[in-house]
Design goal:
Ribosomal Protein S5, domain 2, Heat Shock Protein 90, Ribosomal Protein S8, Chain: A, domain 1, 8-stranded mixed sheet, 615 residues, alpha+beta, 5-stranded mixed sheet, globular
């Protein structure tokens, strides 16, 4: 039998490796930014076009590469970070496996320009699909510039799996945020389709957070500092009152590397126990410094998951540190309550003199022409009222007449009629719905019983209502007496700007002001003023996390998000009139059977099914 096992060609092996390393354009951005940081750059510029599908370019002013290093950097498993297996447990750099550039070059057109500071000229290398097209001498500034064009050009199936441009752009911005937050000592800038998205100068960690997430973030931060033999913690957590429904502002950095850890995230959540509403998530930006020998960062291709030697100790220290900071800055309740100093017991009362009150016992306001201090009794003399007897003229005759008329006064009243609300039997016959556990509405039908989920039913009613208003562009708006001003980050304002036209069709009236401020002067009739900020935050979260593909409808997503925010919640008590109105509105919908998220809104139980329960 012939041998069937053979070695794969290099370009095929590189494409397979690219499947692990390069999942989307954001993966390329992450690898290139990390390479620039390892090169010791102080200024890094990111340029993308068409959400990275057309161009991803990273320019840095690092130490650059020689001619030999530039050529070897595109070979598999070529790295300057490690020499032996022991070095894997002493890593202080970002990349170390030597697969990034080789994988990227296998599925894209790559152009590299690099020069070291001591060299007069640099090197330019062009690679297309793992094949070196050219290698020339070029004049270029110190550092490295890598351009990745036409990603997945030779793997059309992978390119078809990419999401829409807004979704891919959001993933790129997320990776940019993670790298920029971990290195506040480096100047970062980001350009998308020729427009500047971020310009982050060198600053401290707090200022870097504010520059990324908006000026309003500054007042939301509580510092966390802890230094132990096992773990050093620095960074900030958000105040409970600013918690959001999304997890977008949660960042863990271990040795300046972004990681995801559900276990450590639970430590933060337990520190906020009793301070957050249900479904709310606190923000945190925490840097953890540990001994490199106590972690293993080579357990995942994207290096976002880390294995710790002693997770339980880290959990306890992290939870205690965050809880201490919240209590120290009067965010969490403490036993030492504040008290008013005026209520303190005057222990040195015997040293104080009692205040004296001067009283003139000879003062008489009715005594004329007698000096009393600086006043005279004539100041208090009342002038007689002339003709005061005329005030009572005719009083007796009028009183007699009014008394006679009073006996003939008749009060207007409606005739008493029988009302169903006064008759208990009538009420019992009229009531056709009942509320069960403040969650379900029970209604009788001819064949048996109907059980309706009040939350899902109301979502369906609101969803079709908002969808109709957006479609016909006739949303009714109520003007606010005082406009609302809400602060958002630049990324969130960009999402609102994209949905502005559809929001206006639902009834919103707003203007985008400077300094990342949104001014709202009108809201839909059914939207309470206090719920506006919650609705917009939920909408932004839905757009970021629930956009399915390039065929998604912003109108449909907007209607779903607003219906989800404004629908009655489980646990809300409804009157009989409200129950009947909800039931009638539900069955007036086009699709009453399911909620906007395709969940069942009601079930039926026939009399036969009930009888079987008693057999």
């Amino acid at each position: 039998m012939a041998d069937i096992i053979q070695l794969l060609p290099d370009h095929v092996a590189n494409q397979i490796a690219a499947g692990e390393v390069v999942q989307r354009p954001a993966s390329v951005v992450k690898e290139l930014l990390e390479n620039a940081i390892d090169a010791g750059a102080s200024t890094i510029k990111l340029i993308i076009k068409d959400a990275g599908k057309t161009l991803i370019q990273v320019i840095d002013d690092g130490k650059g590469m020689s001619v030999t290093d530039a050529r070897l950097s595109f070979e598999r498993h070529a790295t300057s970070k490690i020499r032996s297996a022991d070095d894997l447990f002493q890593l202080n750099t970002k990349g170390f496996r030597g697969e990034a550039l080789a994988s990227i070059a296998a599925i894209a057109h790559v152009e590299l320009k690099t020069k070291q500071e001591q060299d007069e000229i640099g090197t330019s290398i062009v690679i297309e699909g793992s094949e070196v097209v050219s290698q020339d001498i070029v004049v270029t500034p110190k550092g490295t510039s890598i351009s990745v064009k036409n990603l997945f050009f030779n793997i059309p199936a992978r390119r078809n799996f990419l999401k829409s441009n807004p979704v891919e752009t959001r993933h790129i911005i997320d990776e940019f945020h993670r790298v920029a937050l971990a290195h506040s000592s480096i100047c970062f800038s980001c350009f998308h389709n020729g427009s500047e998205q971020f310009n982050l100068p060198i600053s401290n960690y707090r200022q870097r957070i504010v520059n990324i997430f908006g000026t309003k973030t500054n007042e939301k931060l509580v510092p966390v500092e802890e230094d132990t033999e096992v773990l050093k913690i620095s960074g900030f957590v958000g105040k409970p009152q600013y918690a959001k429904k999304s997890r977008g502002e949660q960042f863990f950095f271990v040795n300046n590397r972004f990681i995801k850890s559900a276990y450590l995230n639970h430590a933060i959540s337990s520190a906020y126990e009793g301070l957050l509403k249900d479904g709310a998530h606190a923000s945190y930006f925490l840097n953890l410094i540990v001994d490199p020998q106590t972690i293993d960062i080579n357990i995942h291709p994207t290096k976002t998951e880390i294995k710790f030697d002693d997770e339980h100790t880290l959990y306890a220290i992290l939870r205690a540190s965050v809880k201490h900071s919240l209590g120290q800055f009067n965010i969490a309740p403490v036993l030492d309550f504040e008290r008013d100093s005026n209520l303190d017991t005057p222990y040195n009362y015997e040293q104080k003199t009692e205040p004296s009150v001067a009283v003139d016992s000879g003062f008489n306001p009715f005594q004329e022409d007698k000096k009393v201090g600086s006043y005279t009794a004539s100041n208090y003399k009342k002038e007689p009222v002339a003709n005061w007897e005329s005030l009572y003229v005719g009083l007796e005759s009028k009183g007699t007449k009014s008394q006679n008329d009073f006996n003939e006064v008749h009060f207007e009243s409606e005739p008493e009629i029988a009302s169903i609300f006064n008759d208990p039997k009538a009420v019992e016959e009229k009531q056709s719905t009942y509320q069960l556990h403040k969650k379900y509405i029970i209604s009788t039908i001819k064949s048996g019983m109907l059980v309706i989920d009040q939350k899902r039913a109301h979502q369906r009613v609101l969803y079709e209502d908002f969808l109709q208003h957006i479609t016909v562009k006739e949303g009714v708006s109520q003007q606010l007496l005082f406009p609302l001003t809400i602060h958002f980050s630049s990324r969130e304002l960009e999402i609102i700007r994209q949905l502005k036209q559809d929001l206006e069709h639902t009834g919103f009236v707003f203007n985008l002001l400077e300094n990342e401020v949104l001014e709202i002067s009108g809201v839909p009739v059914s939207v309470p003023e206090s719920e506006v900020s919650i609705i917009l935050e939920q909408l932004i979260n839905d757009v970021e996390n629930e956009v399915p593909d390039s065929h998604f409808s912003a109108t449909d997503l907007l209607a779903k998000s607003m219906a989800k925010s404004l629908a009655i919640k489980t646990g809300q008590s409804l009157s009989n009139v409200e129950q009947e109105h909800l039931v009638n509105s539900l069955f007036a919908c086009k699709e009453p059977n399911v909620s906007p998220t395709n969940r069942v809104t009601f079930i039926t139980m026939t009399v036969d099914e009930l009888e079987k329960k008693f057999m």
